[in-house]
């Protein structure tokens, strides 16, 4: 089974090509490069697009524009190649990369996306439910390091790999694949443009 996975919900977009659990290649760039990254992954791995059996896309929460780009790219590729799609939470992928850690994604507006009682939530970094010594990962943990560390959280160094929602974890977490239009991004608030209007 050959799976293409990518996530464009955060400031660092990731893409991976995975065959039967083995990572053939992985990229970290920006959301606007995701299709170029996909081309490079296929070219460097020697795999053919015709071998692709499914696409996994990060569903957020995260940047409204980034999410729309990722989901649209996944839908377009899936429809063109006539293959199914699965969606995986960006928070779940972050957590999978650092077992036991609390995923914290920068949400802008001085807020973060995180988990509360196992469910995605948006809140101020100072309002995150933390146990002493909680390990926090993600670009929100980096941005709000001071606030979180003052509350007892542990955060890996800024450039640490645990802060990236690696696409290889999306591929590993993918559940049921289905029609491309069945995958929806996870929005926890209205977009900034609608809020200003």
Can you describe this structure?
The structure is a single chain. This protein is α/β, with parallel strands linked by helices. It is 31% helix and 26% strand. It has 7 helices and 10 strands. It has helices at 34-45, 64-81, 90-97, 139-143, 145-150, 167-173, 192-196, and strands at 2-7, 13-19, 22-29, 52-58, 85-88, 102-103, 105-108, 111-116, 119-123, 136-137. The strands form 3 sheets. The chain has a 5-stranded mixed β-sheet with strand order 3-2-1-4-5, with helices on both faces. Strands 7-8-9 form a 3-stranded antiparallel β-sheet. The longest helix is centred in the middle third of the chain and has 18 residues, at 64-81. The chain is globular and about 50 Å long. The model has no long low-confidence stretch (mean pLDDT 95).
Order of helices and strands: EEEHEHEHEEEEEHHHH
Q: Based on CA inertia axes, which overall geometry fits? A: globular
Kindly provide the radius of gyration, computed on alpha-carbon positions and rounded to a whole number of angstroms: 16 Å
Distance between the termini: 46 Å
Strand count, sense and closure of the main sheet? Answer: 5 strands, mixed
What is the averaged pLDDT score?
Answer: 95
| Strand order of the biggest β-sheet | 3-2-1-4-5
Percent in helix: 25-40%
Structural class by secondary-structure content: alpha/beta
Which band does the percent of strand residues land in? 25-35%
Oligomerization state? single chain
Q: Count of helical segments?
A: 7
Unreliable runs: none
Q: Count the beta strands.
A: 10
List the helices and strands and how they pair.
Elements: E1 2-7, E2 13-19, E3 22-29, H1 34-45, E4 52-58, H2 64-81, E5 85-88, H3 90-97, E6 102-103, E7 105-108, E8 111-116, E9 119-123, E10 136-137, H4 139-143, H5 145-150, H6 167-173, H7 192-196
Helix pairs in contact: 3-6
